[in-house]
Amino acid sequence: MSGPLRWGLAGCGWIARDHVAPAMARVQAVLDPDRARRAAIPGRPAVSTDDLDAFLAAGLDAVYVATPNDQHRPLVEACAAAGLPVLCEKPMATSLADAEAMVAACREHGVLYATAHNQRFHPAHEALAVLVARGELGTVSQARIHYACTAPAWWDAADWHWDPARAGGGAVFDLAPHGLDLIGVLLGAELLETTSLLQRADPVEEGGVVVGRWTGDVLGIVQVSYACPETLPRRTLELVGTAGMARALDTMGQDPGGTLEVIDAADGRARPVPFDAGGDPFARELAAFERAVRGEQPWPWPVERDLAVMAALEDAVRPRGVPA
Ligand SMILES: NC(=O)c1ccc[n+]([C@@H]2O[C@H](COP(=O)([O-])OP(=O)(O)OC[C@H]3O[C@@H](n4cnc5c(N)ncnc54)[C@H](O)[C@@H]3O)[C@@H](O)[C@H]2O)c1
What we know:
With 324 residues, the chain is α/β, with parallel strands linked by helices. It is 31% helix and 24% strand.
């Protein structure tokens, strides 16, 4: 494999068009039933098609999947069967069973699977993870995330986000994967258990709170909503430890930047933590995936972490309850 990775892009909607394709050095092929959406992808792909077989035969090195959630499983399985490494958007699928099947298919065919938890790669989060690992916050036992938005005006009544069969769930399924993943990533901890409350769950939840326990007996709260005015602070992250508290604003989301500060427990003073404010989380994620595809550096995150997040989402929106 020489030159930049030849990416195939399956699903040419908002996240692919505005954030991921612009960060790709080479988009070789695009797949989408909607011709106009394919045409809107930057990078002059050599192949533009609505046919999966033509897409898979387009001379690809790797595939990025950014379709409605119910299409993740069939596309990941098709990539696996074609021997193509695949980076798939969050949530992994509409159910834990589908997510497990995707992982099994990739294992069977020996291809790399990774979930596109792009916020792992935000430079502020990487700086914070280093701070935590160095013990600068002491023993961290509390984590809080508020991650919310106003549902975009272009999601009309027929949009897949409102259909539980296509999306899996609403705001919790869509937004909570970021926070549930990020707390574990920042603390170097595993998600052990969760419990949740949902709001206005018809046809899918408008909001919710997921409370989790991570290794080290850390308790974390992830609150998400589709009903938060975007003029308000709505992307906040706090870690509280015995030696200090870290507070980040607007580092979660799609864009670079935001702020990160640490309040020292000794004197209660806040100091800003420097990080690369221009570092694009999507470009960094793609670069890490490319290194893994080339065998230069393993993908840093075991897929079991992604499955633990999927299990938490499923528990939140489809509680199994107590057997009779
Ligand atoms: N990481 C993030 O920050 C982030 C942000 C937004 C969305 N997402 C995820 O990305 C995915 C896409 O979200 P979006 O907001 O871009 O949605 P979108 O509705 O804007 O785009 C989805 C696209 O997929 C196409 N599509 C549908 N079925 C297909 C198929 N079988 N094959 C190929 N294309 C198909 C649709 O025509 C559409 O163009 C979702 O899984 C979502 O959860 C991630």
